[in-house]
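Help! Submission page says 'invalid entity' but I think these are all valid:
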Amino acid sequence: MKRHGANREQIIELLEHEGGVTEQSVRKVSAETGVPEADIWGAGMFYSLINQPGKRVRVCDGLTCQMMGADQLVEELKEAGKEVERVICLGQCDRAPASLDETMNLVTYGKTTHISPQDPELPMNLGGAEDMAWSALTKAREMGPEAVIEELKLAGLQGRGGAGFPAHFKWNSVRQQVDQERYVVCNADESEPGTFKDREVLLRRPHLILEGLAIAAHVIQAKDIFIYIRGEFTNEIASLKKAVAEAEAMLGDVTVHIAKGHGAYICGEETALLESLEGKRGMPRLKPPYPTEQGFRNKPTLMHNVETIACVPAILRRSGAWFKEQGRTEAGSKLYCISGHVNNPGVYEAPLGITLDELVELAGGYDGNPNSFSPGGASSGFLPMKYRDLPLDYKSLADAGSMLGSAGVVVLNDTIDMAQAVSWQLEFFERESCGQCAPCRIGTQYLRRQVHKYLETGTVDSLKMTGDVSWEMEEGSICGLGMVAFKPLQTAQEHFPEAFQKRNGKH
Amino acid sequence: MNEIIGTGTFEIELNGKTVKARMGETVVEVASREGIDIPTLCHDPRLDPAGACRVCLVEVEGQRRMQPGCAWRVNEGMKITTESSRIQRHREVLYGLYQADHQLDDAGLPVVSANENQLRSLCEKTDVVSLEPVEAPRRGRDHDVNPYIQFNPDLCILCARCTRYCDEVEAVSAITLAWRGGETTISTAGERGLLDTSCELCGGCIDTCPTGALIEKKAPPLVQLQAKPVKTTRSTCNFCGVGCQLDLHEQGGKVVKITSPPVGETLNDGNLCVKGRFAYDFINHEDRITEPLVRGEDGELHPTTWEHALQVATQGLAKVREEHGADALGFISSSRCTGEENYLMQKLSRAAFGTNNIHQCAAT
């Protein structure tokens, strides 16, 4: 790694090489890069994997891990004399509870994961063999950029990261920019609680991702591809690096850069990711301008989630119309993660619009008596079982006051106290708020405190102002985190009012 | 008021009224010219807009979300609303959240330190919702022994004006936002005291802080200052030749604080350096020379008039020239002099005494 003359974009990685943020490491990195010490300190302190140097076990506090006894695991580890830190969802919900040991190796305590059986008729086909010849890229080069975008439009491909924004709009928008310096950025910072689909694509089909990115680079005429992958994904990073080495001939003059995240959920937000790539604190930017206009290094940037970009090769190989038909209520197949109280948690590729009952059938049935489910990550809140036949697609879930998000479905049976489940989700948002804007920074603290107070005292008065605060978080926050961080509480209060009645507190 | 003319101007609708605007202007800039008050906290015209405090949110037709007026650039035909029930409710809850994260006085309002607290002023005008405190775990730097600048995290709203000012205006980058979420605070590398950083102690962070979280260590509490009459005198800083304007605040016959005139009013545009802002103790110092002195036959200095003092100096210089030639004289002027004064000094040297031995202490 180039050290002297290194620039700001490398400071976080240099800090990691130095073992984390300390006065000495900051001074050294400042001398090497010329970036002021305070800027390095401020950026480094943002990231939980480096801001407190030292060896410790990191235990996941995602919803599923909490349900499966993460608290008990923490106690056991502490009794064994380990130093323990609670961290955001490690993306191992299918084998919860999960942790990273002192050397960042994954240790899971739950079941083994499942994926859909190999089937060449599935666009993603996680269990299938990789196409090492990259036939879709060859086809894309023959078709030309306009035809590729037209095929994406016919496919009806929506962003799989959570927003569901039509992909072809972004490709077109970048192509229309005057500036010819353009970038492709792949968001592999999967850290939405309950979500582990990108993990499986990264492990099993890294060539699908790289081929999709190469097609994107060809279409928007970019020379550099950046893959921002969460630092906790040790095995996935290795898988990706191996594939990049294998793909050297196909990539030609396009360079793939792998950038590691360092423990900040908010960096999954596209503009926070860009800030992080530029060596800064992962604080979301004001939008507009959008990344397609001013993204990485303020240049036009095409950004996609792992799953979205991995859909592209199949669309070009088989056709957009074929891909669209793989969906039921909306276009294409979708990787659904399912965890919690089901028998065979895992990643299942199913038609977009499958219902919960159908999905759980794929996952071996319910474990116990289901009471609620969270359809798409922490921000999607909780829905009652009356929605078990609702199509799990972008529109239907939005109409139900929730969202498909990342399709990280978590099933909760009747052994879970809904108010407790809400507090787990609120703790997560409080910890992961970037702190930039007051509605989110203070709002997430307020909601978590009041729900804790309710659990401790059992008095409903604790929650009387949470509606006003939630309204302001949605209206006033800069980015999507603050705008939805109240959803677990709001949806649970709406659908499970009995869980928020006066009750006996813990004390 | 500036008249809007020339190319790149167009009309927009502001609160139902058609007004003119320039390409590239923000909503806050147009509104300010039109006499419409949009509250702001993180906005400082010297800095790039951050849109972080969310106080200035306005409604823009066609936009689902409210947008920050400090950052939103106007376009032809744009329709903007700065007062509505939605905006009002937003302010009532937002200020409530700020109060839940702020040190409050007995009246339940944000406290006032040595400097004004604009958050308090906003809260006083608003029917703020009352929320229980969140007790954010923000850290200060109590160990910082620098003589001038004090940071109180309990009054900080994390608008980042200070850190952005330090970077964008002073290009010093001594302070930074550190940590994340509720723990976010204003910090330095290694949480060191400012004397051990690149800080030049200009105090611009104090000047830009909207809530009095950053204050002059030497300054009295604002309530104390306001309890008795204060005389404010606009003056020119005499530490160098730049000519920064100062406002000297005097109470009980002593200067108790120096501030810069407001941004945009004088050439220093709200900025001062460590000397201008903090080095005023000499004004009331007992050793300060306040009248001309001439050494007498007894070897001691005696007060005199300017006429007599100048006469003595002239005679002395003329005597050296007569006895040893003009080049036995040398003239050194001070970097505290203006360009004009330095010009006169070399004129004195070259024309009046006939020597090129002229130097200035800032020259090398």
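Support: the input was valid. A stray whitespace character was the problem, and the output above is from the cleaned input. Chain B has a mean pLDDT of 94.
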